[in-house]
Amino acid sequence: AVQHDGGNAVCFYTPEMAAAATRRMLLTVHLTHAIERNEMYLVYQPIVDAKTGRVVSAEALLRWNHESLGAVSPGEFIPVAEESGLIVPLTDWVLSTAIGQMMRWNAEGVLPERVFLNISGQQFLRGNLTLRLEELLSGCPELRPHLGLEITEQAAVRDLKVAVKTLGELSALGIQTAIDDFGSGYSSLSYVQQLPVAKLKIDRAFVIDVPDNPKSNALVRAAVGMAHGLGLTTVAEGVETVEQRDFLVSVGCDLLQGYHFGRPMMPDLLADMVREQRQPPIE
Ligand code: C2E
Ligand code: MG
Ligand code: MG
Ligand code: MG
């Protein structure tokens, strides 16, 4: 089959494309039942203060374990969920599950300062996110200042007006917001100053090449400087080595996240990390 994309370019429908379409269809079908079949769960990755190394925040990351497909990565199923509209119930499940977990952590005295949740672009731009969050937090208003939301650069620039409005509403609720995957979106820098966000998360693609690639070093240094100039806090994602950590500390990056400090983990293990560092030193 031949597809025309409107111009004079012609794309051929390859066997690889057909296989990918079949896989997407299969995932869509299984994704429909994933929540009711308890196949979804959240893991939490620590985010540390660059100066002290203490775990101050965590990012909730969604996991899907299907009995025959095995573990499917969010990089694969989130786009499928967005295409099919299943992202709506899925996001709702993430919000309520994470808030439930935060309530338990709070009761145990191990709630991190912030727990960040990822919000897909589609969900973010739909408009009823603030309302739903108010509803979910109505029974536990003390959690509000502990909640953070990450939205991707792409989602924010897709509809800047809606993004500015929603981010403003969220910050009025005391919910902190962060731009995720900063630098990966090929978008202009001017949008950053228009968005009422508190944090900028520097994409792993830049972190991966520091400190050996002078160009990446310059980009990361510039991103941190720009963020600070705008009054934003910076988070570097994907920190895997001591060398990367040392470089990021030297350029003044505020928070660090990556395998070097901890992989995404089950909630009890994150609680252990938080508890251990609160323990007074044994005499
Ligand atoms: P993200 O929000 O940028 O999340 C960071 C990703 O980097 C996670 O992948 C995490 O496991 C991975 N990562 C963290 N530290 C390191 C490191 O040191 N080295 C390497 N190689 N990777 C590291 P994950 O969990 O596969 O998630 C991928 C993406 O899927 C996320 O990127 C996010 O965009 C999306 N996602 C995950 N959970 C959710 C969710 O609940 N809702 C939505 N809408 N999207 C989600
Ligand atoms: Mg994220
Ligand atoms: Mg990220
Ligand atoms: Mg990323």
UniProtKB/TrEMBL annotation:
Protein name as annotated: Sensor protein FixL
Domain EAL: 24-278
Coiled coil (UniProt feature): none
Lineage, top ranks: Bacteria, Pseudomonadati, Pseudomonadota, Alphaproteobacteria, Rhodospirillales
Signal peptide bounds: none
Ranges annotated as spanning the membrane: none
Full-protein interval shown: 430 to 712 of 712
Reported function: Putative oxygen sensor; modulates the activity of FixJ, a transcriptional activator of nitrogen fixation fixK gene. FixL probably acts as a kinase that phosphorylates FixJ.
